[in-house]
User: Fold these one by one.
Assistant:
Number 1:
Amino acid sequence: MRQKTFLLPTLRDVPSDADVKSHQLMLRAGMMRQTAAGVYTYLPLAKRVIAKVEAIVREELEAIEAQELTLPSLHPAELWQETGRWDKMGGELIRLKDRHGRDFALGPTHEEVITSIIRDAIGSYKKLPLNVFQIQTKFRDERRPRFGLLRGREFIMKDAYSFHGTEESLDETYQAMYQAYERIFTRAGLTFRAVIADSGAMGGKDTFEFMALAEVGEDTIAYSDTSTYAANIEMAAVLPEENEEATSSEPLQKATVTAALTIKEAAQQLEWPLSHTVRTVPVKLNDDEIVLLLLRADHELNEVKSIHELHVKSVSVLSEQEVEQAFNVEAGLLSALDQEGIRIIADQSLKGLSGILMNTATKDEVAIQVDPARDLKIDSYADLRTIQEGDASPDGEGTIQFARGIEIGQVFKLGTFYSDSMGATFLDQNGRANPYKMGCYGIGISRTVAAIIEQHNDENGIIWPVSVAPFDLHLLTLNSKNEEQVELSEQLYASLKQSGWDVLYDDRPERAGVKFKDADLIGMPIRVAVGKRAQEGFVELKVRSTGESLDVHVDDLAETIQSKLQELSNV
C-alpha cells in the first residue's frame, strides 16, 4: 500500500480529550476518528488490525466446529420482553420505534434472537450440540462513554451461543471455548488472566472473564502470587478466619466516647483494634426483607458476592432516611445489640471472635468486650466481605495480590435461563420435551485492539505484535527527490509484496524525520529505510520492538526479514 494515497491522518500532538494510551495512540496514528461520544469511525489502518484479530478468532472457533452466521442488529421488543430483559437492561438499551409505533432495540447482545431462531429451527436431540457465532457491531447506551474503544456506545464483538441436551455436553463445549479463548488471546500477543466473574444481567452461572492486564483497566483482579487462581474482586471468595472458639472472659461493658463519632473513630479513641471492631450494615434483600449484616470495621461489604452467598436477587444498603424510618435511630448509631424480630447475618470472620467493640445506638457510648455467641442473636454466617491484598488465596496456595484488568472476553454457562423463559425445547430420545441447556461466549474485538495497544507501546508510539500488525513491513524512501533511492524503493516494494508480505510504502514527498516519526508512531514490526547507501545496494532494517538496527544488502534482505519476523513471532 502506497502511503502517499493511504488514508492515514496522523497527529503530532496528544488530543486533549483522550485520557488513556490506546485512545491517544489510535487517534494520533490515524486509526480512527470520533463521530459522536462513544461512536468512532475505523479508518483503514484500524480495519486491517481488526481483520487480523477477527481472522484469529475465526480460525480458532472453526477449529472446534463452531459455525458462523449473522443475526440482525434490530431486535423487536417482544423477544426481550419474553425474558424480562427489556425492563432489566434499563437505559443501556438503545430503543427506537418504527413508523408503525412498534418498539425495537439495537442489539447489545443476541441471546433472545438466537434462542428464537433455534426453538423454531431445531426440535430434536439429533441436531445437538450446536455452536454458532457471529462478529458484529453491538450497541449499548453507556452513561459515560470514555477511554476510546474501552467504553463506547458502539463496538465490535464476537458472540457465540451453544445449545445442548445434557450438562455433560455443555461442559465439553464450555471447556473447548475456554481453551480456544486462551489460544486467541495468546496469539494476539496479550498478557491476560482468566478470572472468576459475576454473570450479571446475562443470567446463568459458571462464568470466567478474560482480562488483559493493564493499569488503565476498570476492573480489579484478585490473584494468587503462587498459583493460577484469579477472580474479579467482586467474586473472590475469602477463606474463613481461624479464630479461637472461646467465650470472652470479660462481661459486656459500656464505654464513653465523644458524641457523633463513627465506629472507626470510636475505636481509635479507645485504642481498640479495628480487627475487633464491628459495624452494623442494614440492607434490603430482594427489595423486600430488611436484615442486618455484621462486618469487621477493617472490612468492606461486597454486595455482588453477598447476592450469591445469600441466594437472593439483590442486596442494597439502606439510605440514612430508610434507617431512621425502620429503626428510629440515626444511621451511624445503628446496633445489632438487643434487636428482636430481624435477621442478623455475620461475616464469617466474626465466627469465634470475642472482645468486640460495637455501637449501642447511643451517641456517647459504645459496647466493648462483646462476644457474638453470647451477646448477639446471629442467625447465620456467610462470606460477605471484599477480599484484600495479603489475604490467603481461596485455593489455599499463596496470598492475594491485586492488578487492574481490561475485560476482553467472557464465557458463560447460561443453563436453561433463556430456553425456559422463551419456551425453547427439543425432543429427547424418549420423545419428551426438554429445554435447551445453553452457553454464551463473547469477545470484544474492538476492545481487544485497544488492549493490545495498552500493552504494546512506548513513548514514540505503538509496537504491534507480528500476528495483528496492520502491515508486516514499513518501507521508507528517505529522499523522494533522489532517483537511485526511489528506483531501489520501487524494486523492493514490488519484490517484498511478491514474497507475500504486507508492505506499507512511504513514498510521500516528506522529510526523513517526519517519516521516521510516523513509522515509530504507527509501529510496524520491521522498518526498511532506503537512504544514502542505495547506490551500494544497502538499506537500514530496524526492529520496532527492540530498536535493533542493521545495514542489510538487498540480496540478503528477504532472508533477514524472514528471520527477524520469526524471532518476533516466538517472543
Number 2:
Amino acid sequence: MTQNNNGGGPNGFFDVKKYFLAKNLTKDLPSSIVVFLVALPLCLGIALASGAPLFAGIVTGIIGGVVVGAVSGSQLSVAGPAAGLTVIVLNAITGLGSYEAFLLAVLLAGIMQILLGLVKAGTIANYFPSAVIEGMLAAIGIILIMKQFPHAVGYDADYEGDESFAQTDTHNTFSGITGALAKINYGAVIISLVSLAILIYWPKFKKGAMVPAPLLVVVMGIILGLVFGGGNLALLDKQFVNIPLVKSAGEFFTLFKSPNFSAITNKEVWIVAVTLAVVASLETLLSLEAVDKIDPIKRISPTNRELVAQGIGNITSGLLGGLPMTAVIVRSSANVNAGARTKMSAIFHGVLLLVSLLLIPGVINLIPLSCLAAILLMTGYKLARISLFKHMWHKGLDQFIPFVVTILAVVFTDLLKGVAIGMLIGVFYILRTNLRNPYFYQIIKDGDKKVIHIKLAEEVSFLNKAAIQVTLTSLPKGSDVIIDGSNSRFIDQDVLETIFNYKHNAYTKGIIVQLVDIKDKYDVPKLKELNYKP
C-alpha cells in the first residue's frame, strides 16, 4: 500500500487554495476552538506535572499547532506536550541539573526524529495490528471518562491530562473518583450537567450549526461560574483554568529560555535525547495510526513525514524553552469529533493558544474546568461507544481478544505499556493464524492405500515451518504422499530443507514422497510480479 501524500499542494507541502476553501474553513474554524479549549488545560497540567514552567506547556502547544501542523502531512492529527513523557521529563530536569540542559536534550531528540523520518523508520506503523489500535482508542475513551469525572463533579489533585492508572498524587484512577465524590461541589456538577445537555441537544437545532456547542458550553460555564460566585455553589480557585498572566510584550519575551549548548558533552543529555526521540516517535506513530482509523474520509497519513515534522517541532520547542511533544490522541480525537477536515484546525488552535496568552488571559481564567471536562467526557463516550465492542465481537475472537486485552492493559498501566501488551497478544493471534494456513490437506483412497495430497499455499514462510514439520512427522506409515508446490510463489529455505529431509528419510517408514513443482530455491517475489501498481 502506498502512502497518500496529504500535504496538499503540487510540491506536497501546503496548498493555500485547498486549506482556505470556505467549505473546509466552516468546519476547521469551529473545530480549532474545541481543540484549543481541550488543549489549554492539558498543556498547563502536563507542564506542571513535568516540573517545568507553565509557560513551557503553552509554548509547546503553540509550536505543535502552528509549526508541526504546517509541516505535517496528517490532516487531523494535533501535536503538543504529552502525558506519556511527564515522568521522563521530570526525571531529566532533576537529573541534568538545569532546565536549559534539558532543552538541549529536546533539541537533539528533534534532530534524531528527523533522521528517523529520513531513513523511513515510520514504516513500523504499518505493523500495528488493527485490533490493538481499536483497543487503544477505546481505552483512551474510557480513561477520559474516568479521569474527567472528578473534574466534572468537584476536584482532582491529579494533574490535568494524566493517562496512567497510578497517579502522581499517590492515588489511582479509581481512588481519584471516590476522592472526588467525597469533595463534591454542586456548582461544578450543575455546570457539567448543563454542559452535557448542550453538547447533546444543541447540534440537533438547525441554528445550532452556526455556533459550535463547545463554545456555547464555555460561555455558559463562565456565566454560571460568575453567578455562583460567593454563594453555596461557588467554585474554588483550583476549579478554574489557570493560564499565566502576561502583562506586556516585554514580559512575554522574558519567559522564553534557550538551551545550554555547553552541556553537549554530557552523556546524560544524549541518553535523555535518545529516550525522548524513541518514546515520542512511538507515541506519535500510534496516535497517527489511531487518528487515521477514525478519520471519516479514511485518509492515510505519511508516517515518515510526520517524524520529520515532529522533529522540526521539537527542535523549535527546545530553542524556545518548550517541552518535548508528540502527536496526541486526546486532542486529535477531539479534533475529529468536532468535524475538522484539514490541518488548518490544528494550526488555528495553535494561534488561539497564542492569542489567549497575550490578549485575554483574564477571560480564559474564568473558564470552569467542569465545563471542559464535559467536552472530554463526550469525546471519551464517542471513542468507547458500545457499538465498537459489538463490531469487534462480530469480527471473531482473534480480533476481539487482542482488542479487550489492549483496553485493559492501557487502562490499568499506561499507553505505551498497554499497547505493548496488546501487541504481544495481537502478534500471537497473527502467528497462530499463519501457522494454521500454510497448506491444503486432502486424503484420497487408492484401493487399500491412502494417498495424502498436501498442496502448499502461495506464500510459505519460516513461520509455517513448525506446522508443516508436525504434519509430516505424524503421517501414517505406508502412505503415498504428494507435496504440491504448483501454487507457491515463495517457499522459505528452512521449509524447503524440512520437506527435502522428510522425503530423504520417509522410506524408513514405508512412505513414498512425490514432490510436484517444488524448486530447490525461491527468490522473494518482486512488486511487479505481484501486479503491484504504486
Number 3:
Amino acid sequence: MRNELSPQKGNLDVSTTHLTEAVLLLFQTSRDAVYMFFQLASILLSRSALYKQPEDIVSSVKYFRFLRTNFHPLDSFDIPHYQLTSRLVRALAMKLMKGSDDTTRDMEEMTALTHEILYSGGVSSLSTIDLIDAIVPFSDAVAETHRLDDANQPPERAIQTLRQAMLLIPDLRVSYALAHCLAVRFLMAHEISDYEEATTIADKIVAAHIPGAGLTPTQRHAIELINVLVVSRLNSYSRPEYLEDAIHRLHTLICLPSLPDQDRARLAVSLDNVERQRFNYFGITGKSGKTPPNTSGDYLSYFLLQRPAPRECGASQFLEKTELLKEILGTIPDVEITNVEAAVELGRTLLPLQHSSDRLWYLPAIMFAQILLQAHQRTNRLDYLDEAIITHRNLRNVSAQKPVHYQMGEGLLRSLIARCDLLHLEQDTEEVMQLFHEVVNDGSAEAFRRFQISYGWAHNARLRAHPSISIAYETAMSLLEETLVFSPTLQIQHFLLVRVPMEVRGLPLDYASYQIETGQIKQAIETLERGRALLWSEMRGLRTSIDQLRAADPALAERFAAVNRNLETVAMSVAQSENTEIGDGEAGTDVFSRLLLRQRRLLDERVSLITRIQSLSGLGSFLKPLSFGALNSAATHGPVIVVNQSRWRSNIIILHKDLPPSVFFTPPNFHDRANQLKGQLLHAQKERGLDSQDYDFTLASVLADLYELVGKPVIERLRQLNVPEKSRVWWCPTSAFCSLPLHAMGPIPSDQGDGLYFMDFYICSYTPTLSALIESRKPNPQPESLYTPSLLLVAQPETLPGARGEIDVVQAVGSPVTTLVSETATPTSVVAGLRDHRFVHFVCHGLLETGKPFDASFELHGGNLTLLQIVRSQLPAAEFAFLSACHTAELTEDSVADEGLHLAAAMQFCGFRSVIGTMWAMADTDGAYLSKYFYKYIFSESSGRRGVPHYERSARALQFAVKKLRRKRGVTLERWVNFVHYGA
C-alpha cells in the first residue's frame, strides 16, 4: 500500500495543486492516477473541515461519486471500497450540514451508503476510526437536516439505519440522532411508540453523565429533547398519568447539579406550565407549594414549551410575530371602536406571506384568527366573522399539531355559532353539529374540557331541533363519567364538579327532561339515576356484592375484591400534602402523583377484570347501570316522588310499584321559582339567623309557595293513584329542591282544620338516589334480633347544655346502651363502636366547612369525626342512626347539590339503613324532647308494629315525635321542620 498524502493543515494547498496536475496527466492511463484522485477527494474533504470552504466539499462529493461510479473493483486500484464509501458519507454529511442545494437527493444517498456499510458486511473491512468518521457525521447530518421545528419527517430508512448504527457504535451522538429523529416524527405523527423509544434513548444519554463532571453538549441536547417530548405528549394525549410523568421528569432534570443556568431556566418555564395545568385540572399545587403563574391555555405558551434549544433553531420569526399579535389581541377589548379596524390591519401585516419549512409557520395565523373573532364581537362586522371562519377552517386543515387542530376546532365552532345566530344558515348549522362531534371526541384535550363542549353540543342541537340531540346528550353523559375517573380522589372529583358552570351541571336533568318530552319516561329515570350522586355511585360500585361471582370463579372474585379495596383506599385518600415524599416512591414523586399513578394502574386492571367477569355465564349485566325495572323496585314499600328541575322543562315523576311512572309537567316558571325559594331561605339563614322572627316568616312563606308549586299537584296525583293517606312516600329531589323542606310544605287547607302540612298526610323520607334506597333494603347479613337492638350513644355534653337531658332519655330507652361520652368519645373509639351496634345516637356539635363537604364532621373529644372517615367505614349490619346534631342533612355551601354530600347520606352509604338528620342548626333543648317520643314509638310493640324491623319504624316514629314537638309551647316553625328522615 502506498503512503497516503498527509491531510494535515499546512500542506493541503500544495498537495492539492500537485495532485490536480498529476491527475490531468495520468488519469486515463495510470492506476496511480485513480489512487491520487481518491487522495485529492480525501484532502478536499479534510480541507473543507478546516477552512469551511463550500466549494471544497462540493468537489469532494463530486470526485468520490465519480470514483464509485466508474471504477470497479476499487480494490484493484488500492482503494478499499468501504473506505471510499465511508468518506463519501462523511462528505455528504458535511455538505448537508453546510446547506445542500439538493437536500432530498443527498440525504437519500447518504442514508443508502450508510445502510450499505452497516448491512453489507463492510463493517469488518473498516477501521474503527473510519466507521466512526462515517456514522457520527451521518448522525449529525440527519439530526441537523430534520430539525424539531421543521415540517419534514425523517425517512424511515434513515431511522432504521441509525438504530443499527447505535448498536455498533458506542457514541452518544449516534444515540442522540436516533432519539432526535424519533422526536421529530412524534411531533408530527404523534405515535406514542416513537415517544417511548426516543425518551428511553435520551434518558440513557443523560444517565451516562459522570457525577462531578460537566454535561457534554450531547447530554444537554438530550435534556432539551426530553423537555420537548414530555410537553408535546401531554398536549397531544391529555392523560393524567402523562401530566405526572412530565412533572416528575422535568423536576428530576432541573435538579441535575451540573445543569447550566440557562438550561435550568428553560426547564423551569416548562415545569411551571405543566404544574399550572395540574392545578387547573385538580387544584393541586406543585413542588414549591405555590400556585404556578397562569401562562397555560394559549397557543403561544404551548409552542414556547416545545421550542427547540438554540442549537436546533434560531429565534423563530413566527414566534416573534405571534408575540406581537398576542399583544394586539390583548388591546382589542380596550380600544375604541374606531381603532379596532386599525388593530386588525396591523395584525394582518404580521402574517407570513407563504408556507415555510418551519413547523411553526402558522402560529401568527392562529393568533390572527382570534383577533378576527374578537374584532367581530366588538364591532358586529360580518366580514371579520367570515374571515375568522375561513382562517380557522384553513388552519384546521393544515396543522399537524393535535392541540392546534383541537383549538382551531373550538375557534371555528365559536365563529360558526355566532354566524348561525345572525344569519340562520342551514349549512352553518350542519357544519357546527359535525364539528361538535369531532371536537368532543378528540382525545388530545382533557375529558373535562370536552365534557363542557359536549354540553354545548346538546344545548345547540336541542335549541335547533337537530337530529343529533340524543347522540350529543349520550356523549356528554359519558364524558361526565370520564371526567370523574380522570381524578384519583373523591375530594378532587368534587372539585372538578364544582368548577363546572351551574347550567352545565344540570346536564342529566336536561337530558331526562328531553326524554320525557319525547315519551321515553323509563329511559329518563335511568338517566337521572346515572347522572346524579356520581361520587356515591362510584363508591357503591367499589363495594358491589361479589357473591354470585365468588360462586362462579372464586379466584377472580378475590382479585376483583382486592382491586376494589385498593381503589377505594386511593379514592378516600387526602392528597393535600403534595410536597411530602413517599418513602417507597421514586425521588421527586409527590403524594398526589403516587395516588394518581396507582389509581390509573388499578383502573386499567379493574376494566380488564370486569370484561372477564361479564363474559361469564349469568354475569353479563355485572356492574352495568340498573335498568328501569330494577330502579322501579325502589317503590316497593311506597311511591317515590322524583322532582326533576330542568331549565328546559321541569317534571315531577311518581314511581309506583304496580303502575307505570306517572309524570306531570310543571309551570314554565317552575325552575326559576325553585331557585328563588332556595335563595330566599339560605339568605334569611345567613343574614337573619335561624332564631330570628324574620327567618320564621321567610320559612313560612317558602313552605306555602312550595305547597302551591309541588305539594298540591303531588297530593292530587297521589289521590288519583289511590295512594292512601298516612302511606310512606320517598322524595328524590334534584338541584335546588335538595335544600328545600318538601316534607313540610303547607299549610294545607283541610276538613281537619288549618295548620296541616304535607307530613300530616304522608310519612315522608328522602333518598339521594333510587339505588341508595334499594341498597338500604337489602337483607341484613345478620338476622333481625328478637330483642331491641343494641344502641351506641355518643355524646359531648361539655359544649351542649341540653345534652345531659338527652343522654338520660337515650339511656332509659329499654335497650342495651353503650355510652361513649366526653373523653371516651374519640373518633377512633366511635368508629370501633359503630361496628358492634345496630343503632347509634349522636349528641354533639355538627360542623360544616364551606366548599369542603368531605370535611363536614361531628365534634368529638380529641378531634372531629369527618364525613370522609365515616365513608371509609363499612358497617353492613348497621341499621339506624339518629344524628342529633346541627347540619347533618345540610349541604355544605359551594358543594354540588345533586351529589348529596352530607353526614346523613354518609351514614346511609356506610351501612345504616335509616338515618335521621337536620337541615340546619338545631335547638339544644329539642334533642331530649324529640328523642323521648321517638324511642317511645320505635320500641313499642303495639298493634301494627310487631314483626316490622325497628329501623323501618323510624320514619313513622319521627313523624310521631315531631308532632309532639310542634305542639310544645314556644317551638317555632324552623325547629320542627328541621328534622328529616333518610332511607328505608
